[in-house]
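Write out the 3D structure for:
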Amino acid sequence: MFTIDAHLDLSMNAMEWNRDLRLSIHDLREREKGQTDKPDRGQGTVNFAELRKAEAGLVVATQIARYVAPGNPLPGWQSAEQAWAQTQGQLAWYKAMEKCGEMVMITDKTGLEKHLDLWMNGEPNDTKPIGYILSLEGADSLVTLDNLHVAHAYGLRACGPAHYGPGHYANGTDATGHLNEQGKELVREMDKLKMILDATHLCDDAFWDALELFTGPVWASHNNCRALVNHNRQFSDEMIKALIERGAVIGGAFDAWMIVPDWIRGKSLPQQMDCTIEKILDHMDHICQLAGNTNHVGIGTDLDGGYGKEQSPYDLDTIADLQKIPGMLQKRGYSTTDIEKIMHGNWLRFIKNAWS
């Protein structure tokens, strides 16, 4: 079944993990054997071939580079200018993959319809380009709002103001505090440009500020439920209800510590913690119960977003295993129409409305 994944850090994997995503998963894992600089070496789950097997013909692909001010212990770049330069290298990689025929940027409704026609014409998908909508995860690389305009001109269509910790525009996961003045100006400028606001990673205070200020389309590309895993990275029921009222879609994230409670990063193992794809569906079902329908859930895996098989559901070997989800949903009593909404329909409706 045609699938949309609303959050993949493809360029980060290519540029910082040094992965050639044109290689097979076997070859990617083999090349990383013995490497210890990152905990997920040899355990990657995403490449172009596996995306095609997943029938993930459309993804939201990120640029990401954190600016860390003095005193910020998180990894990142020491200036916003350096962070901006990193995102430009990531953009250059996307453009190189377009030239190779692996990817195609989708920036408007016309391009979206053309790409959907290509992927749904019944022909084999093993050589079709992966369509991608460009999103910025964390706005710290925007030196000024002039950079936002430059980015929008080259195709940026969505932005999440925050990532982890304190940010230049907004505080994110594990941080607290309202939007500062720069953050408010960023949100207002995104509104003027008719961009999509990604609420993912915003701390609670900044979340409510952003929803009050922003009048345009809001989604949460990769987020799960605080009611099931109690952490500030997750959305409370109140936050989920507010997103539902705004017509948002929330993508289920596949990072194990967000799926099951009591996960200890670097120590817990997926099978030991019974972390499965079914547990992600529990989060999706929770949102459906709050909404009273299936209109507000989708997939936003964040697979290989700094972790691999060691921190993913144990019944997932590669992203191709997304195709297990329709059968799992059917066993739960979901109709074919509802399953299609979750796999791609809700994201398509959202994007078409945002770009109308």
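Strands lie at 4-8, 58-63, 103-105, 130-137, 156-160, 196-198, 218-219, 250-252, 297-299.
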